Amino acid sequence: MAKKIPSISKINELFQNKEMKPSELFEQVYETASYTESVLHAHLELFYDEGLKLSKESDNRYSKNESFGLLDGIPIAIKDNINVYGYKTTCSSKMLSNYVSPYDATVISSLKKAGTIFTGKTNLDEFAMGSSTENSAYGPTKNPWNPDFVPGGSSGGSAAVVSAGSAVASLGSDTGGSIRQPASFCGVVGFKPTYGTVSRYGLIAFASSLDQIGPITNTVDDTRIIFNEIQGYDSKDATSITPEYTKLENKKIKVGILKELMQEGVSKESQNEVNKVVTLLKEKGHDVTEISLPLTEMALSVYYLIAPAECSANLSRFDGVRYGIREDASTSYEMMNKTRSVGFGEEVKKRILLGTYALSAGYFDEYYGRALKVRSKIISDFKTAFDKVDFILSPTTPTPAFGFGDKTKNPLEMYLSDLCTIPANLAGLPAISVPTGLSENNLPLSVQIMGKPCSDYSLIDFAESIEEMVEFNFSPNLLKEKNES
Amino acid sequence: MNLKATIGMETHVELDTKSKMFCSCEVVETDEPNVSVCPTCLGLPGALPVPNKTAIEYIVMLSLGANCKITNEGMFHRKNYFYPDLPKNYQISQFDFPVGVNGSLEIVLDEELHSVEIERVHMEEDTGKSVHMGSGRIDSATSTLLDFNRSGIPLVEVVTKPVISTSKMAVAYIEELRQVVIDLGISKGKLEKGNLRFDANISVADENANELGTKVEIKNMNSLKSLEKAIDYEIMRQSKQVEKGESVIQETRHWDENKQVTVSMRTKEGSADYRYFSDPDLPNMIIDQDFIDNSKKNIQNLPTDKRKTLKESGLSLSDSNYLDKGEKWLYDLYLSTVENTKDSKSTFNFLTGELQGQMRKAEIDELPNWVDSVKLANLINLFETNEVSFTSAKDILTKLLSEDIDPKSYASDNNLIQSSDDEEIKALVTSIIKDNQDIVERLEDPEDKLVGFLVGQVMKSSENKVNPGTVKDILLKELFG
Amino acid sequence: MSENFNIDDVSNLASIELSEDEKAKLQKDLQIILEHVDALKNIDVKDEKIDIHPLSKVLELRKDESKESLKHEDAMMNSPETKDGHFVVPPSIE
């Protein structure tokens, strides 16, 4: 029944040649959703009626050979921290359980113009704070490869739907690894673009200087197609840039292996995937060297001051005054205190309090001020490194997917699962995760490739060549079981 | 113990831009609530700020107008506090890199010039408006209504150093600042509309003390009368405490217009730790020399320049200060009129007293198009040269405001020209002296009030056609030699 | 550092009411994190310049033009309580 979904280019070919209609594809992914969702809980809401209607409009365009392009009629899932007009945007929080967005995020407007069909909104760790979707107020998402394991997070829902075939691709957001880590756990491609290349307007902010929207897809080419549609300057986002993308001049590529991510703290299994890719790269004649950026070891600490500090202010607007839930009280202040107490989950509260403390009088210089300066140093270290190499290769995650409840006892253990992904956010670099193999217990493993700012397209090209070399052709158990039955 | 008061002013100036500071919502004046709001100024999830270029030009102009140094690389900060009319529960403001620093404004007190040092000029956004519903007493509200039309309107905050010593000086400072923003064309400057809102930081200490006393902040006033009364009241209140040896509590108070006292505000906001940090949504802001030069182009004829011109025309400092704060047409009219009259003071008096008075009485805001500086100068010259009496001049003005007349022809046609013929006057004087011998005998010296009575009699007998000055001169000569 | 961490002060600043159980759990977790980030103290950061934008982009300013705002109904549609076109909250003055 469930078919492995072809690539976007292939689907477009089928549409163009009238071998398949967008509405048929939409029905197919919806059918997949209807039996996978009961296990996975990856979508929070499905837009069936509107999706079917829009996909039929797309049918018409193809029948008249007037399609909008490669993405016309492609069903894409949206992480539920990105605003879509007229639909709920909950951020998987009780706080926004009743919130309906009166406007579209810029990425949503772009995709609508391209004729994309939205399957619905996907589950996440509340306000994108977490690495497993265990922090969702609406219950966790399960990993399609094995429902006893987490799908990663925070874009766990977006990664699971692509992996399970209930959407052709999805949008996630990545603040410290929230696209790449779940993509890795679910065996799909995840891309965090250069900071500022994709508008954040309409993405509910977690940490504004780190957040970036990006695609989660089955293939690297799909990532290229979606990134191409959503990137570009947006006058509504003051941090948006007018990117001048760099090109690779040499065929022989210089790849750096980041020493600090190939040592204790990263499992042998994860390291082996990098070693496997290194061998393949060398066979192709590329130049691979080890590089060292000692401050990488400080990245987690820097991140856990900057992200909470920014989030403590970004989440202040959730107060029960203009939208969201509200608790009764006799004064405004009491109402806000109680609403925020009831509306936010534990992890969100923890980070708000941490950030509030890091910014408070007497502690600013010691914590937040210092973290900003170390971040500046990390940025210049990367700059220097990219004078010597074109790309930096590392594992995406220290381990494959872990089990539910495995890392909820100690906050640091959970935070450490973003060890390899955080540096790219701090430095604003583009980084992509490509699945390369399976672990001992049949869970996907990936490598991460980081590029210099605005090398997004060449990074994608290079990732595609790795994708071809490793030939990752596995699919999740959920699909296999269904196929066999 | 002699006490002295020290006052610092923080003034919020609402800029007159088309759109808001960080979004494209129109700046509107309406009673209809929440009609000019968008995701950004309502603080909806996912919305982002993009700053208004004109607002930045305006704050640069104001900084230059207040003689500040411009910060070339600045940034915006978030000021964090929870208040229902603050949509994001942080205000985008500036902290350690304000647009303008270390300036000064020249103010006039009576006939003296003073300089008020400006510490900083920074950019921020306005909050929404709260209306408290309930029994009418501020302390027994049952709910608060919120309107966010005002939310996000650009505000410039101008902060002085603690260099003001009296309520009069504070008022003169606000008047000067208001005129500067009006002359720059960056704010409507209407106090009654809240275009300027001010906080006063007041402390009282022994005049020989090296340190300032405990600071009390009086927040959110928008009338000069309240400002003056609130400062006077607060100085008195604190002085009493200091004299009694009691300590003044550092707090925020507000001016209660009904009770005419300052009252402590026990809001949460007062004690907050604002946790300022650079806004990650807004990259570093560069204000380079080109930008400054462009902004400079729009700066002309500020109050200090106007005062200089007025003083050169012969006016005193306080009269110059009065005119530079007045409406622009009056300032222009004065300058063009005084060119054709001899006396600047009487021109000033006639235009600011008689002309403005009659216009107010007749409820006209604008001069009729036939009234120009030449006609007014002619009229002023008529009574200055004693050709008509001041009373006649007033009547001619009344006529001129309703009809296109030539003052001089009108005076002749209506028999208002006074005689300055000494012989004719002498004859009238002689006749009055003769008819009032009883009074003449009681006269002791030229200063006697009865001289005035006799002058009046002469005027009466001439039907006001003679010049009273000449009458007096001749009368005194006849009586005292 | 963390011996000064007073969870009541911080939750008050953050406007979040906490139960005693929450306080105990959060206090413990936050101590662990604060101890971890203390490692930053050993890094020399003198004279380090800070750019708000990770790629050092400079702020661009928007032309002063007004555009269409939200429809009033859309602005109010999520409001927990409204009256005469206003958002309504419990009294904000005590």
Explain this structure.
By secondary structure, chain A is of the alpha/beta class. Chain A has helices spanning 8-16, 22-40, 48-63, 106-113, 156-164, 180-185, 220-230, 268-283, 299-314, 332-343, 346-359, 365-388, 411-415, 422-427, 456-470, 477-484; strands at residues 43-46, 75-79, 117-122, 169-174, 189-192, 212-217, 254-258, 287-291, 391-395, 431-438, 444-451. An 11-stranded mixed β-sheet of chain A has the order 1-3-2-4-6-5-10-11-9-7-8, with helices on both faces. Chain B folds into 3 domains: 3-295, no CATH class; 327-413, no CATH class; 422-480, Arc Repressor Mutant, subunit A (Orthogonal Bundle), CATH 1.10.10.410. Chain B is built from 15 helices and 16 strands. Chain B has helices spanning 53-65, 167-184, 224-243, 289-296, 303-312, 317-324, 328-338, 344-361, 373-384, 390-402, 407-413, 422-435, 437-442, 449-461, 468-480; strands spanning 3-14, 69-70, 73-74, 77-80, 90-93, 100-109, 112-125, 129-134, 141-147, 154-160, 196-206, 216-221, 251-256, 261-264, 277-278, 285-286. In chain B, the strands form 4 sheets. Chain B has a 9-stranded mixed β-sheet with strand order 2-6-7-10-1-11-12-13-14. Chain B has a 3-stranded antiparallel β-sheet with strand order 5-4-15, with no helix packed on it. Chain B has a two-stranded antiparallel ribbon with strand order 3-16. The mean pLDDT of chain B is 92. Chain C has 94 residues and is mostly helical. Chain C has a two-stranded antiparallel ribbon. In chain C, strand 1 and strand 2 form a beta hairpin. The chains are: A alpha/beta (485), B alpha+beta (481), C mainly alpha (94). Strand 9 of chain B pairs antiparallel with strand 2 of chain C.
Defining traits:
heterotrimer; A: 485 residues; alpha/beta; Amidase signature (AS) enzymes; eleven-stranded mixed beta sheet; globular; C: 94 residues; mainly alpha; Histone, subunit A; two-stranded antiparallel ribbon
Fold topology:
The complex is a heterotrimer of chains A (485), B (481) and C (94).
Chain A: H1 8-16, H2 22-40, E1 43-46, H3 48-63, E2 75-79, H4 106-113, E3 117-122, H5 156-164, E4 169-174, H6 180-185, E5 189-192, E6 212-217, H7 220-230, E7 254-258, H8 268-283, E8 287-291, H9 299-314, H10 332-343, H11 346-359, H12 365-388, E9 391-395, H13 411-415, H14 422-427, E10 431-438, E11 444-451, H15 456-470, H16 477-484
Parallel strand pairs in A: 2-3, 2-4, 7-8, 7-9
Antiparallel strand pairs in A: 1-3, 4-6, 5-6, 5-10, 9-11, 10-11
Helix pairs in contact in A: 2-3, 2-5, 7-15, 9-11, 9-12
Chain B: E1 3-14, H1 53-65, E2 69-70, E3 73-74, E4 77-80, E5 90-93, E6 100-109, E7 112-125, E8 129-134, E9 141-147, E10 154-160, H2 167-184, E11 196-206, E12 216-221, H3 224-243, E13 251-256, E14 261-264, E15 277-278, E16 285-286, H4 289-296, H5 303-312, H6 317-324, H7 328-338, H8 344-361, H9 373-384, H10 390-402, H11 407-413, H12 422-435, H13 437-442, H14 449-461, H15 468-480
Parallel strand pairs in B: 12-13
Antiparallel strand pairs in B: 1-10, 1-11, 2-6, 3-16, 4-5, 4-15, 6-7, 7-10, 8-9, 11-12, 13-14
Helix pairs in contact in B: 1-4, 2-3, 5-6, 7-8, 7-9, 8-10, 9-10, 12-14, 12-15, 14-15
Chain C: H1 7-13, H2 20-37, H3 72-76, E1 82-83, E2 86-89
Antiparallel strand pairs in C: 1-2
